[in-house]
Amino acid sequence: MKRSKGRRLMGQMNVVPYIDVMLVLLIIFMITAPMLQAGITVDLPQVDAEPLDSDLLQDNEPLILSIDAAGNFYLNLGETPEQAIDDEAVLTTTAAVIRRNPETPVLVKADGSVPHRRVVAGYVLLQSAGAQKLSVLTDPVESDQG
To answer: pLDDT digit of tens for each residue in the chain (146 aa)?
Structure first.
């Protein structure tokens, strides 16, 4: 089989389709990243505390009870995690999660202005549902160094 003299085989890879795919993936991640925030936005208290053990959170996705400034409860589960739920729903949902996986880390994310009695009420609900170890989410203290 003879080749024509004017045509030569090209030994390079065409990367244009890969660049297109990369740009599409970049756009998808840019759109979905803000939606991955767990729960609702609360103004966490700033304290100088030890960070959570990262191994604890790697193995199991945590159950997060959020308490907003008005004292409403939210869980990071279900179809509408940004919708407030009542005490009974916190109890039943948490109990179901703990029954399914007793090693599930349970975190409390309470707004700094919430009355202490409401945070304690959330703790009692979580403990009544079977949560053994509870952790509190806080923000680190901002240093004034600059």
So the answer is: 555 566 777 777 788 888 889 999 888 888 777 665 555 666 666 666 666 666 655 567 888 899 998 999 999 887 788 889 999 999 999 999 999 988 888 989 888 888 989 999 999 999 999 988 888 887 777 765 54
Measured at the CA of 87, the angle between CA 58 and CA 72, to 5 degrees, comes to 80
- How far is it, in rounded angstroms, from Cα 66 to Cα 122? 9
How many whole angstroms separate alpha carbon 115 and alpha carbon 71?
8
Q: Could you give phi then psi for residue 29, rounded to 5 degrees? A: -65, -35
- Domains along the chain? 46-140 (3.30.420.270)
Task: Report the alpha-carbon distance of residue 37 to residue 42 in Å, rounded.
Answer: 12
Enter the tokens of residue 40. Answer: 């609702």
Task: Name the packing angle between helices 87-100 and 116-128 (round to 10°).
Answer: 40
How buried is 72 (Cβ within 10 angstroms: 0-12 exposed, 13-18 middle, 19+ buried)?
Answer: middle
Written as six digits, the tokens of 100 are 């399914």
Question: Looking at the DSSP assignment, which residues form a beta bridge with residue 136?
Answer: 108
